[in-house]
Write a structure and sequence with these properties.
With 149 residues, the chain is mainly β. It has one helix and eleven strands.
Amino acid sequence: MKIRQRFVLLPSVAALSVLGGCAGMPPYQPGADDVMVPIKLFGDGRPQMCKDGRNYSLATTDTSDTVKVPSGQRISLGAFMQYDGYNVIYTCRPALSFVPRPGQAYVANTGLNNNRCFIELVREDLSKDTGVAFEPSLAAASCTAGTTN
């Protein structure tokens, strides 16, 4: 019985070691000239950003679910998500890229749909009935948010 317990414990320790790598991602510290814009977050996961080929964790502001990102150049926005059940841990890191514009606010949503992780982003636009509009600068992630360098 003790041998079986050790074999069950080893994969769990290995999984925790791999997942612990995300915790070491440095938080983004804005530069003196950075103009920051807000992104309201909905859904699952820990927000992450890739800028200039470097990955950063993003902390929410105050007690809200809002992060701030630098504007004026393309960044990748992603989220590290982890789901577990039935002794299996699933992880994913959906990501996209866009060019945040100064003075513009955004809304991001992440989650799991039909066994696939997703991320979506729109810009706030109060002139629309829905209060949001398509973000024209959306593209595939230009660098992989969520991986460590």
